[in-house]
Structure formats: structure tokens, C-alpha cells
Amino acid sequence: MKRRPRQAGVALLTALLITAVATVAAVAMAARQQLDIRRTGNVLDADQAYLFTLGVESWAKEILARDRRDGEVDHPKEDWATILPPIAVEGAVVAGRIEDLQGRFNLNDLVDAEGKASEDDIRRFRRLLAALDLDEGLADAVVDWIDADLDPRFPNGAEDPVYLGMTPPYRTANALMESPSELLLVNGITREVYAALAPYVTALPARTPLNVNTAPVPVLMALNEGISESDAAQLIDERGDKGYQTTEEFLAHPLLKERAQGITNISVSTSYFMIHANARFERSKMELHSLVTRGMDARVTVVRRFQGPA
Ligand SMILES: [Ca+2]
Ligand SMILES: [Ca+2]
Predict the structure, then answer these.
(1) 84-89 and 210-211: which strand pairing?
(2) What is the CA(62)–ligand 1 centre distance, in A?
(3) Angle (nearest 5°) at CA 201 between 114 and 157
């Protein structure tokens, strides 16, 4: 009996608690319901936006196929290189552009088919780093990241022991890069270094020749020792409206004659492109980047897709 007041007090507290929880729950449920309605809308909008980017992708694939049927040479004055400005379709705004990835240095060329370091390509990569005023020594750690073995290259290489000592610890990939953004995991590659390097490198699923018709100045400078910035600019200028028609024509350029010997693994046509598509639909925005490969038969196949900012 003596405990009754206390029990009453407890009951009251419990009742208040239940009321409070019920109120909070009710508010939460109402909020959730509104959120669900909104979220469903967003999901639908996002799905729509994604479908629109796929639409841009198939537009680009068709342009690339058509371009191959027109001829084997690829250069920046062709239709595929035209940027599709934002246009309104079916209630969405879409835009797209096609980028030749073989105008970039393919990081996966740093190793051969067996996963062994490829010294010619490593020299080219060191020259690219130098052309960008970056430390050439960074090449060692990048090669170690991709090459199959666990022996660090001298003097700036890095294999597991370096990465296992980091917080959080991780291991070298010892495999081809899936994306050049893996560079950010490599010892010595800071955000600044990556930002400087990113526009000139790519990570393709196979060894690829460099398309001299689409490569920018630093990448052309990397072709051989002694190609200056103004040499590279002149080589670009003299592509004209049709590009170099053959690698022989390019190598016969007076600026290259004496250096042509050391220049290997180049082409005037491209198999790997990146299709950049974006779409805005209602509240949703979608960006899609599709890595595609184009065969000599003009078939264009998607290798991988990335969503979000490039
Ligand atoms: Ca072409
Ligand atoms: Ca390695």
C-alpha cells in the first residue's frame, strides 16, 4: 500500500513516456510518409534521368560507328569530336560529348601482357611527368602498383610494405588499373599531382597505341627526348583539317626525323573512347561516363560505365 503512490508515479511517467513516444512516432511517421512520397518521386526522376543518359550513350555509339564506316583515321575535326550542347528533349535537358582516350597516356601500358614492367613505356611516362613539371621518380611507384611482382623498383618504388605501414593499411593492386583515379592510392601521388596528371592519362583494359592526331602537347612531348613544347604545338597545328593519314606521315615530319627511330606504339586511329553524357529531369541530375571500344567492323561495345562527376 505504501508503494502505491510511487507506483502511481511510475504509471504516470510511463503514460507520459508512451504519449511522448507515440507523438514522436506519429511525427516521424508523418515525416517519413512525406519523405517516401518525395523519395519515390526522386527515384523515378533519377531513373528517368539515367535512361536519358543511356539515350545520349546510344546516340554517341551510333556516331562512332558511322565514323568508322567513313574511314580509319581519327582526328579532332571529325563529327564525333563535336560537343553536343544541352538540348531539351521530352521534358529533360541532355548533353554529351565523346572523348578519344587514346590521345592520353595509357597507364596500363606500363606493364606488358605478363605484368612485367615495360621499359619503353616507362620512359615515355617519365617524360610525360617531366613535361608536366612533376617528379619523374613517381613513375617507379606507379609501375610497382600495376606490375605483378612484389619487388620495389629502384629508387622510388613502393610495394606492400610501404602501403601496409599506412593508416589505414592497404596493399598494392599488382594488376591493371580499372580507373586512373587509382593513382590517388599510389605512394607520392598527392591530390595536386593527380589533378595535374589526370587530363593526360587513362587506364584502358588492354595495351593501346597512342593516337598522334588527338594527343595534346605534353603527351606528344613524351614521345621522345628533345620534343619541345613548341615542337609539339607545331605538330598539332600541322594536323590540319584531316589529321595525319598514317604514322609514317607523322614520323616523316621534319621536326621528328632524327627522333622518329625511338617513337613506337603510335597510331592515327582509335578504338577506345569515353562517352560523357548528362541529363537533368525534374529534380534529378545524372552524369554517365561510358568507356566504349570500337572494332574495325564499326561495332561499338560498352566496357564499363561510371556514374557521377568525371
Ligand atoms: Ca574517324
Ligand atoms: Ca607490384
Answers:
(1) unpaired
(2) 13
(3) 55
Backbone angles phi, psi at 284, to 5 degrees: -105, 145
pLDDT (tens digit, 9 = 90+) per residue, 38-85?
667 777 778 888 888 998 898 899 899 999 999 999 999 998 998 878
* C-alpha cell of residue 158: 613502393
CA of 268 to the centre of ligand 1 (A): 9
Q: Domains of the chain (ranges plus CATH)?
A: 1-114+199-310 (3.30.1300.30)
Task: Give the chain's residues under pLDDT 70.
Answer: 1-39, 310
Ranges of beta strands (E only) in 151-245 are 201-202, 210-211
The pLDDT score that the predictor gives to residue 59 is 86
Q: List the grid coordinates of 33.
A: 510518409
- In the reported structure, the alpha carbon of residue 152 is separated from the centroid of ligand 2 by a whole-number distance in angstroms of 7
d(CA 138, CA 268): 29
The model carries a pTM of: 0.84
